Amino acid sequence: MLYKKSLFMVAITLAMSACTTGRLEYVTPQGETKFACETEYTWQPSVDKFAVEYVLAYCARQAAEQGNQVVRKELLELDLSVPEPPQGEVWSYELARKHHKQGRLTDKEYGYLIAYIDLGQDKH
Question: Is this model's pTM higher than 0.85 or not?
Answer without folding.
Answer: no
